[in-house]
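User: I've been going back and forth on whether these two constructs are worth ordering. Before I decide, could you fold them both?

Assistant: Sure. I'll take them in the order you sent them. The first construct and its structure tokens:
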Amino acid sequence: ENDPLQHQLTDLGQQVQTLLKELGQHDDPSIPSDNILDQMEPIPANDIEAVITNNLVLFHLIPELQEQNQCLLKIIHEMGAKMEAEEHDYHAVLETEQSEAMREVHKVIQELVTQLEQQKTSSEMTIQAYMKERDTLKSF
């Protein structure tokens, strides 16, 4: 079932390749023939730009262009998936950090409430002691 479809895909690819080559050479006579392109030397790869140009931009034959496009599409899909995964991980870490921060804030607030209650109790006891002392002194 897949063999006839694969054969049709190959045939259509060859037709597109031939049509593109013919149209390109018809529209621009300065485009060299396949023989001349095969004899051309690649640009020396002194930096990343030259490597990109040699391996991803320049092509001699349309099948090479198709292979380069397939390779680039694969890389783009992989990078897109990686970026989505990293974004998901980032949001998960951010949410975890926010939850932890909220727990810490809640703990600090609870400690402050406890301290305030203790100070209130201590202040009330001190006030009661002063009132008792005052009442004792009044009775004399």
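The second construct, handled the same way:
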Amino acid sequence: MSGTRDLKLLGTKESLFTHRVVWALKLKGIEYEFIEVDLLNKSPLLLELNPVHKKVPVLVHAGKTICESLVILEYIDENWKDGYYPLLPQDPLAKAYARFWAKFVDEKFYQGATAAFFSTGENRAKGIESVAEALQVLEGEIQGKKFFGGETIGFLDIAVGWIAYWFQFVEEVGDFKVMNSTKYPSFDSWTKQFLQVSIIKENLPPPEAVRCVFVGFKNMAFQAKNAEN
């Protein structure tokens, strides 16, 4: 791996957003120091480096702070370009498309999954519907392709990648089911191929650890709701 001085990544080992950055750094062969953060007891360092959102991941490069996973991915790709694995395509239009679909996933799919996981009644139903609609769109986008980035994974694959692994636990703990290999065969094929990429396969948190995190989220939401009553 390429030696890089003064590069630190604050995150959690189970965070889907942290893993976006981990995958990008690993693909480019960039060395970094990982600083694990307890989000239930946020450290002064995290609050100092990300005072706006107080969330991970946070990348610190030469004393400068970059927050938000998609922003960090672009920073990494711009800063380590020549001779390094490319994340975003060179073509301006293809680059714009990748950014558009990454934002789509974080808004339409992630927000829908969050509503399906935490809500009840009509809001839960709307969340499930939003996820199904997003999956249908992604199915059309990946159809006929090996990866969203073409023959190799890229920026958009990394952005969508959490769905391939984390979403199964969202469904399991949230007690709903949307993913369907028959209904979304191209997306299912992409999921399987993505998880077999060595960099991805070797840098996934253990299933039980991810499951425990989502169970914890669910329990905290239940306790908060009971406290309001």
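Notes on the second construct follow. The first strand starts at residue 7 and ends at 11. The longest helix spans residues 92-118.
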